[in-house]
Write a structure and sequence with these properties.
With about 400 residues, this protein is of the alpha+beta class. About 70% of the residues lie in helices and about 5% in strands. Strands 1-2-3-8 form a 4-stranded antiparallel β-sheet. A two-stranded antiparallel ribbon has the order 4-5. Strand 2 and strand 3 form a beta hairpin. Helix 8 crosses helix 10. The longest helix is centred in the first third of the chain and has 34 residues. The radius of gyration is 27 Å and the shape is globular. The two termini are about 50 Å apart.
């Protein structure tokens, strides 16, 4: 071997490129082998490949949907129903699990023995029980154990709860409620502007402005007031008992309620540990400094501890949100029409396009997961310490 070739061969960078090229080649070769093998088996079985099946009429009814869909629609519309149902239960689950997890995490650090013990017992119980058992507990042990429609729990003869779900009034037209979304957007813009003004005011005068109270009023109060006004001026389709069930209104099916409750209670146990760890990571001197300024324990927690703990909590919280998104697929166990149940179950059985349907489902979960990660990374960069 010539000296030049020897130097090239023993160059660390060249050897690194060769090893990475070998790994990439092996990976693509393996994928090519499995794809070619699957295509050959599909041809032998007489199964057509391609994505033309997406435009066929589905002929599949879905008992719970938040988008317009009928069995006469095509399979793309059926896929969209599954995606919408998955996002609905996942986003609601993330919001509710965060609230419950924060409360339990703070309760674990409480000086009250009973409160601390209850929170600890809940976390230890959740961490040692499989999620599937949570789903079955809420579905068969709680929701299905409710009375039948004739013995429903009623509130104001408008809301009815039984083992077939929660029946609530539905607006005859959805367009007026667009005003609520507009009010929410205006509230967010005003809050951001108010936050900038409050920061400048504090920098120039040293006086703090109750930004979170004002933000709550703008982001929650303004849309709530708009919703009340719209609700009072809109006609409603109220559920009424007819025969063996209720007619009219909108029903939250037991599968949705059970899956949401299971995801919230299960994920909240893990978020509580993230919150506890984040709070304990804040230096003791910070709390002592806050106490020396005369801040109450509540003010210390809200103004000093939690903002600093967020920098520790956000990365593991991102993992919990991604877990919740993926765990929504457990809805297939109780026939909640999310994407796995509707698309990988009903659509796959009707068309037999296994490769394409699995690939589309994987891509959707990947895109949704990346979107959650990007948002949390953006938030993490916003609250990161600014160093010089």
């Amino acid at each position: 071997m010539s000296p030049a070739l020897r130097r090239w061969f023993y160059d660390a960078r060249v050897r690194a490129w060769i090893s990475q090229a070998a790994v990439a080649g092996a990976m693509f070769g393996t994928i090519w082998y499995f794809v070619a093998n699957a295509s050959e088996n599909m041809v032998k079985a007489g199964i057509a490949s391609g994505f033309d099946f997406l435009w066929r009429t589905s002929g599949i009814d879905v008992p719970f949907k938040i988008v317009d869909y009928t069995p006469q629609n095509n399979i793309v519309d059926l896929l969209w129903v599954g995606v919408a149902n998955t996002l609905l239960v996942s986003l609601l689950g993330m919001a509710l699990a965060t609230i419950l997890g924060f409360l339990i995490g703070i309760a674990r650090l409480s000086k009250n023995f009973l409160l601390r013990s209850l929170a600890t017992g809940f976390v230890e119980f959740v961490r040692n029980i499989p999620l599937l058992l949570f789903v079955f507990f809420w579905y068969f042990g709680v929701i299905r154990a409710l009375p039948p429609p004739r013995d429903s729990f009623a509130a104001f003869d408008t809301f009815f709860l039984n083992n077939r779900g929660l029946y609530v009034p539905a607006p005859t037209e959805g367009h007026p409620f667009a005003a609520v979304s507009i009010a929410f957007a205006i509230g967010v813009v005003l809050f951001l502007a108010l936050r900038v003004w409050a920061a400048k005011r504090q920098a120039s005068t040293g006086k703090a402005f109750p930004i979170w109270a004002a933000g709550t009023a703008l982001i929650v109060g303004v849309p709530l007031a708009a919703a009340i006004v719209v609700a009072l001026t809109t006609s409603w389709n109220v559920p009424v008992r007819g025969g063996f069930n209720f007619r009219g209104g909108f029903v939250l099916v037991p599968e949705f309620v059970a899956l949401l409750a299971a995801l919230v209670t299960y994920t909240a146990g893990f978020i509580a540990e993230v919150v506890r760890g984040g709070i304990l990571a804040v230096g003791k001197g910070q709390k002592e400094a806050a106490a020396s300024l005369g801040l109450s324990p509540g003010q210390t927690l809200r103004l000093i501890v939690v903002p600093q703990a967020l920098r520790v909590m956000v990365p593991p919280m991102t993992s919990q949100y991604l877990n919740l998104l993926k765990n929504s697929s457990f809805g297939a166990a109780i026939a909640y029409p999310e994407i796995v149940s509707v698309f990988m179950g009903s659509a796959l059985n009707a068309t037999g396009q296994a490769i394409e349907i699995i690939a589309i489902t994987l891509a959707i979960y990947l895109i949704a997961g990346l979107a959650v990660s990007m948002f949390m990374n953006w938030y993490n960069s916003r609250i990161a310490l600014v160093t010089r």
